[in-house]
Design a protein that fits this description.
Helices cover 63% and strands 15% of the residues. The chain has 446 residues and is α+β, with helices and mostly antiparallel strands. The chain has two domains: 324 residues, Outer membrane efflux proteins (OEP); 87 residues, Outer membrane efflux proteins (OEP), CATH 2.20.200. The strands form three sheets. The protein has a four-stranded antiparallel sheet with strand order 2-5-7-8, with no helix packed on it. A two-stranded parallel sheet has the order 1-6. The protein has a two-stranded antiparallel ribbon with strand order 3-4.
């Protein structure tokens, strides 16, 4: 019998240990770092930065020489004849039909083309380098947006966990009260209706607990999805996460540090280069062409043939091509004007974005100040509600308070704790927005 007991005990201990090991303790910094390494948005933005170099190489190829090798072979079953004046052959008055060509002809050629002056290519090179800088800034913005999203999801989970702890404490307190009332009822000192009411309160709390657990599961899944973690992985959050720094509201705000502004500035720079690319079509283009090849003729297949009818002759040519646009039906002018409109629209967006970011900064500061006041008030309310609950519980035991008073005191205490938790969450969310306004979201990783 003892051996069976110890087997069950060891199995249960091993099961609990294995379950705890399968859970991953994840702090906010852990969640942020995991997201930056595994989330699709961050990985794709990083790939865009890598691909920008490929785009630069693609544009640079327009300024490098192009070398092509071509070869062709032709078989002429019927060779065209040319009519010649017989006088050329000392046969005046007659028309001579002369066959021009051979049955087989082969021509391998090497050709080279080099742009000597092409304003569009030069402008494209500048735009390609600027595009790489654009993707680098966009990568940084993607990271910041991901940090903001993960932080909000993390604090939502933490708030629900604290609410669950509060509910669990309230449930244990109510169950304890139920046991007391049941003892009094069994001794004939309490009414049956009081026992039923406390039982209903317990059932309601259990139902709320289940609902809260469902909400917590959904929020944990949302957090795992936000950071790119396997949904089946169990996670737990540390007990202490909410730290309040009242001095955060005094941090300096500067639009120059905002990635959104840097991105829009770089976008305007790209649009200006696009306008220059349109204007480059007004410039002449100068290119160098060179060819070198062989032509083989014969009555037999000429390649690798030593037949006496097969003859080979080489040829080459070097030339300059100059193209000077004269009139394009105002097409280029229309493209330049469209590009100019796009620049003006981007400048308008830049001004509007600066206003929106300034508004976000002021709203975040106001939210921080309000949250600090609310936290202090709710913290005092928690202490007061706890004192009221203790006094009411003691009075109920001595017959000086009703069950309604006790249940109301328990609910008031739970509400005070939840309000305090909510105010903490509001502070942390506002703190994230303030870091965002300052352009310092990555400080959450430190």
């Amino acid at each position: 019998m003892k051996s069976k007991f110890w087997s069950v005990f060891v199995f249960g201990l091993f099961f609990q240990l294995n379950e705890s090991l399968s859970q991953e303790l994840i702090t906010l910094k852990d969640a942020l770092r995991f997201a930056l390494e595994h989330k699709a948005e961050a990985r794709n933005a990083k790939l865009d930065v890598e691909n920008a170099q490929n785009k630069i190489d693609e544009v640079r190829a327009g300024a490098l020489p192009k070398i092509d090798v071509s070869a062709g072979i032709t078989f002429n079953p019927i060779i065209q004849q040319v009519a010649l004046d017989g006088a050329l052959m000392n046969k005046p008055g007659e028309t001579m039909l002369v066959t021009m060509g051979q049955k087989w002809q082969s021509t391998p050629v090497v050709s080279l083309n080099q742009q000597l002056f092409n304003q569009s290519v030069f402008t494209g090179l500048k735009a390609a380098n600027t595009t790489k800088e654009f993707y680098a800034i966009n990568y940084q913005l993607t990271d910041e947006q991901l940090i903001e999203k993960v932080a909000d999801a993390y604090y939502n989970v933490y708030q629900t966990q604290l609410q669950m702890e509060t509910l669990q404490i309230n449930l244990k307190s109510t169950e304890k009260t139920h046991n007391i009332i049941k003892g009094l009822h069994d001794a004939g000192l309490a009414k049956k209706i009081d026992l039923d009411r406390i039982a209903v309160a317990i059932n309601n709390l259990k139902a709320q607990k289940q609902q809260l657990q469902n909400a917590l599961d959904l929020q944990e899944n949302a957090l795992k999805f936000a950071i790119g973690m396997n949904i089946t992985q169990d996670i737990i959050l540390p007990e202490e996460t909410f730290t309040i720094d009242a001095e955060v509201v005094n941090q300096v705000f500067s639009l120059d540090n905002r990635t959104e502004i840097k991105l829009l500035d770089k976008q305007i720079e790209l649009l200006e280069l696009n306008k220059k690319a349109m204007q480059a079509q007004y410039y002449p283009n100068l290119s160098l062409n060179a060819t070198y090849g062989y032509t083989g003729y014969g009555q037999q297949f000429p390649v690798f043939s030593k037949h006496p009818s097969v003859k080979w002759a080489n040829f080459s040519g070097i030339g300059l091509n100059l193209t000077f646009p004269i009139f394009s039906g105002f097409e280029i002018r229309s493209k330049v004007r469209q590009a100019d409109i796009e620049i003006k629209k981007a400048q308008v967006d830049l001004v509007d974005t600066k206003l929106a970011l300034s508004l976000g900064n002021e709203n975040a500061k106001a939210q921080i100040k309000n949250s600090l006041l609310t936290i202090k008030t709710n913290q005092e309310n928690v202490h007061l509600a706890k004192d009221v609950l203790d006094d009411t519980s003691n009075n109920y035991k001595n017959g000086l308070a009703t069950l309604t008073d006790l249940l109301d005191a328990e609910k008031a205490y739970a509400d005070a704790q939840n309000n305090y938790t909510t105010s903490l969450l509001n502070f942390k969310v506002a703190e994230v927005q303030l870091f965002k306004a300052k352009g310092d979201l990555k400080s959450l990783l430190d």
